[in-house]
Amino acid sequence: MEFPYAAIAEPSLPSALQIAVDHGLLATNMTIILAGSNEGFMESEVLGRKSRLYGRRTAQIRLLPFDYADAAKFLPNTKSQDLVRYYATFGGTPYYLARINESDGFEDNVLRLLFDNLLANGGVMIRLRGNRPILM
Prior knowledge:
Shape: elongated
Strand order of the largest sheet: 1-2
Oligomer: single chain
Strand content: 5-15%
Structural class: mainly alpha
């Protein structure tokens, strides 16, 4: 589970982690990895100065989308023209690339991966950057 989802479901989680880190975990070999795709939440609620976890980070890895060549490796049986179409639609986002069914056509995959979820939720996809939502 992504850390933002867990922290929203249990608002005391950042405080509990702060207490655990400050009172014992530093003396152990334990590594805690907090992962999340919501950049705004991770920057403000985990890394930000007002965060309970501020100053406790020992490393940060920002994962970037795959480039075209690496994205194409997800779809070894797909025609090159469709690979370009998929990359133009989904970019190098592993979430979508891993869910493409190569036996379905391009249009069917796009409808299923983008629009079925959108229509099922009855909402608009929103990406948070900082505190500013961006409609997609």
